[in-house]
């Protein structure tokens, strides 16, 4: 699911703190914004194999 809340892509360089917006441009500096939500999973997930195996066992 895509988040509607976006954060200024250059906030570390242009602002003291993150600047959030619902539009595609930053309200303070006019720069582009990006999705503020973290990725839903990490491809290098160390425990992913175990979680998937547990789900398979529960379904059976």
UniProtKB/TrEMBL annotation:
GO terms for biological process: pseudouridine synthesis; rRNA processing. Coiled coil: none annotated. Gene3D superfamilies: H/ACA ribonucleoprotein complex, subunit Nop10 (2.20.28.40). GO terms for cellular component: ribonucleoprotein complex. GO terms for molecular function: snoRNA binding. Keywords: Ribonucleoprotein, Ribosome biogenesis, rRNA processing. Signal peptide: none annotated. Belongs to the NOP10 family. Involved in ribosome biogenesis; more specifically in 18S rRNA pseudouridylation and in cleavage of pre-rRNA. This is Ribosome biogenesis protein Nop10.
């Amino acid at each position: 699911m895509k988040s509607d809340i976006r954060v200024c892509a250059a906030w570390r360089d242009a602002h003291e703190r993150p600047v959030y917006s619902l539009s595609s441009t930053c309200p303070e500096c006019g720069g582009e914004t990006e999705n503020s939500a973290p990725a839903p999973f990490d491809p290098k997930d160390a425990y992913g194999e175990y979680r998937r195996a547990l789900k398979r066992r529960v379904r059976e």
